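Late entry, evening session. Most of the bench is empty. Finally got around to the prediction I had been postponing all week. Sequence below, unchanged from the version circulated by S.P.
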Amino acid sequence: MASGCTGPSCASTRRRGDGNVLVTLATPYADTTAADLTFALGLPALPALHVLTVEGIELRLLGASHQILRNNMSETVACLPGHRPDLPSTVDHQGYRFTAEIHRLIPRNFTQTVTRLREQATTNQHAIVGVFPGDRAAVTILSAHRNGWHTWHAYPQTGELVETRTELRR
């Protein structure tokens, strides 16, 4: 398991437990609403603010959301210049299944939900939590598991919580 800040935009890293990383990022988030997100497979590795590798899965925090690398595949959910925003609810192709759901929450529920997710992630040795400046609820959480990963992107200004799940089947 390896982790590292891959750029000057990563302000501080605190390890929790065996592998979990809570990262305070020194860069504003580039995507400001779920409507800005694009899903893409097969992109090359993008510049990352922080990377955590867990059992062959590379979890990559981007200033514009996330990228996951595993073997010869990449999944990117991010604000991608030059790409039309498009976040499908489901992609199912040759043993790869991606789902995305946008939760729209009232402010109190949003804060409580993000706080709960952060607390859960800080006890997960296979998770990384990126906290963006200006609001403790502006987070991206990436968590790897045996057959895939689970992510959350929180947008406090709109009360949106984007949840993605990816399962790899043999």
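Two things to note before I forget:
Residues 2-168 form one domain.
The first strand starts at residue 2 and ends at 5.
Will write this up properly tomorrow.
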